[in-house]
Amino acid sequence: MSTRHSTKATARLWRCRRCGRRFANRNQSHACGRSNLEHHFRDKPKEIRELYDAFVAALRGIGRVIILPQKTRIAFQARMSFAQVTPRQKWLDGHVVLAHVAMSPHFRAVQTISPRNHVHTFRITTVSDLDSEMISWLREAYAVGEQKHLHRHRDR
Known about the structure:
- This protein is an alpha+beta fold.
- It has one domain: Alpha-Beta Complex (Aspartate Aminotransferase, domain 1).
- Helices cover 27% and strands 27% of the residues.
- It contains 4 helices and 8 strands.
- It has helices at residues 37-41, 46-60, 132-145, 148-155, and strands at residues 14-15, 22-23, 66-69, 74-77, 81-87, 92-98, 107-114, 117-124.
- The N and C termini lie far apart (38 Å).
- 24% of the residues are buried.
């Protein structure tokens, strides 16, 4: 699972000199530090890793994804982070960022960060939770990660 940043889409991203992570915004506030995937799956059942792998496969079916293992979560980035998961003993907790508030049984809570950034919290317990509706939310979040929601708003 590569975290290389060499495509045209990420060419203009700002890179933190300390940790090397790339961001859509210059001097983006963040906690420097690198972790690895193994850290998140230590002492977890193999089914949780399989569930994570299915989640990543769903994201990669949408587009190019940068995987950023961090201390307490695993973030997924296009131009900016659009989703994250935290492996637990029996499920994956996570969230997606959407440009609007969406109501769905998939979401446990919604937190509004700004007018075009709404964090939708979910829990995935089985691969069947990655149904067509959830994939559509991941696709929408990916577009937010590409910052397409900003361009659509400017065009109006």
